[in-house]
Design brief:
2 copies of one chain form a homodimer.
Chain A (H helix, E strand, L loop, with lengths): L13 H8 L2 H12 L2 E2 L9 H14 L2 E6 L2 E6 L1 H7 L3 H6 L8
Helix pairs in contact in A: 1-3
Chain A binds a DNA duplex (30 and 30 nucleotides) through helix 3.
DNA sequence: TTGATAGTACGGATAGAATCGTACAATTGT
DNA sequence: ACAATTGTACGATTCTATCCGTACTATCAA
């Protein structure tokens, strides 16, 4: 039932955000979400559906993404404004990072 | 013996750096190192000496800090240039983050 | 109402991280 | 040479993450 607790902007914590993004699968997912709103099945991964559910939860609970159920899918978007308000420049630094060997 | 393998600049990986900084103890330590070179005993923490050794290793192996033994102490410094080269703006975004509830 | 689709929830397995205490190594001062 | 200082290394423990399969819920379409 998506147990949906999205933290408020004030409750975002930098270590949690960094930890959430410090996983290659989640980082890749967030980069894709950053391009535009997605649903779960848009992601091609090596891991199972239930494992992805786990990763979505970590991202949601860290306040990185927002999940918006609609019909039988869940739209996911980046919480850009909240992250920018609390941690200015962080997202762009992460998205602009040299990809040479960082994936 | 400090087993010192510092990764080269090219080998730095974003997820590893984020993971290393995604721990409150390490994040606090790095913020302090950012102010100026430190030795281990400069840090006041709740954890034991051997636990800190572990955290120094994580930071060193992620390429966040540099350890330079001198006499019987080890000077630690931030690998600012390398991090900036690979992940421009990341450090400043992290250090400038709103501290309201992020520790 | 039946079946397909999209995803969560739960329980369990495995792997990895954090922590500690103790033992050790290297350097320095006496 | 001895003791003190500064830190690492190792092994054990505990806690947390990752991952899977299965079972379930909710929605939509026929």
């Amino acid at each position: 039932m998506m147990n949906d607790h999205h933290p408020t902007r004030e409750d975002l914590r930098l270590p949690d955000v960094l930890l959430a993004l410090g996983n290659p699968i989640r980082l890749a997912a967030v980069k894709q979400i950053a391009i535009g709103e997605c649903i779960c099945s848009d992601f091609v991964t090596d891991v199972s559906k239930s494992t992805m559910t786990h990763h979505w939860r970590v991202l949601r609970e860290a306040g990185v993404i927002q999940q918006r159920p609609e019909g039988r899918v869940i739209y996911m978007s980046l919480r850009r404004d909240d992250l920018e308000a609390r941690f200015p420049g962080l997202l762009s630094a992460i998205f602009n990072a040299d990809q040479a060997a960082s994936a």
